[in-house]
Design brief:
Blueprint: H1 3-8, H2 12-33, H3 40-43, H4 46-81, H5 84-110, H6 118-192, H7 198-215, E1 221-222, H8 223-241, E2 248-252, E3 259-260, H9 266-271, E4 287-293, E5 296-302, H10 310-314, H11 317-329, E6 334-340, E7 345-352
Parallel strand pairs: 2-4
Antiparallel strand pairs: 1-3, 4-5, 5-7, 6-7
Helix pairs in contact: 2-4, 4-5, 4-6, 5-6, 6-7, 6-11, 7-8
Amino acid sequence: MTTYQFVISNRLASRISRHLAFWLFYYIYTILISLPAINSKILTDPELYRSASLEALYYLPVYVFSVYYSLYFIYPKFLGSKNFLFLAASLLLLLLITYYGSNYITRHYFVADSNADNQDILTITIIKGIGEQIMITGTAISIKALKDYYLRDEEYKKLMVQRIYHQLDIMKMKMEPAILLGVLKNIHSDIQSGGQYAPRMILKLSDLLSYILYESDARHVPLKKEINMLHDYSGLKELIFGNRLEPTFQISGDFDHQTITPLVLLPFLELSFPKESEDNLEYFCPEINIQIHESEFQFRVHTNMNFPGVKEQLDSPILENARQNLLINYPDRHTMKIEETEIGFSIYLKLNLNNHPVLHNHNNHQVL
């Protein structure tokens, strides 16, 4: 049984173990407070442990009733209703029961063989039936409250993670059709015009769809796969625009063991390419620079000209969805800048991959 199972699990064995441990601490506590001035002779006296054990056993029924009456009746009822009148009445009833129960045990068992007077019995009853009862019951309720708080916090975290993943799925649903629709339009145009690139474009699109539909469901993918996907998408655009488009990739760093959120880079690459095959498009050479140093990942796209519709493209929903994707996946762990010039623009992205799982094998796809 692990520590987590012992403290948190609701399995019968774990619950019984927790309760036995609690009452074992109660017994140890009773022994400790029964110790007089400590010396080696007293600590080896068996009579001390016998009398302390009897004291613990005498008052155990009172404390058991108080603890479980509080844990399984007062505590859940009050949490459900927030009725302070019920709480006050229940606590008063509990104090009366434990007081008279402790008084009976003190009078007939604990001091039955001594010459204790009523004042002594009253003092012992108040200490045992009220003082120690409040302390023991309060400890049990505190443990229960802390456990419930921990479980609620864990449940809240799980719900937040599920909410984030749901938002991510919505982002992908918004982003992928916007990117793929433009590609399909270009393939359709090439087929209608009798072009020769449609078959190769369909093959490239097939590889891209395979990655988007089947591999991007994971929360993290090998960084090499994400970069290979960028190569595929870039190659698809090259087929669409022919010799008027020639993107260049500059890649440096060790990508063997790093992972990244899938499709986090694709929108920024899409924004750097023209959407349609414009007849008046001049030679266009976007530069894609990718670097990684330990867990710091940098991605930069620079264009050498302002292609038709670039202003609208930079204001498109693709960019807004990409920003939201970064906020969800890399909160406080990303930097994004867009710099516009007279002849073009640059998109700069820096990610901190510290919290991502690390790959320990070398079977990932090689970067093209």
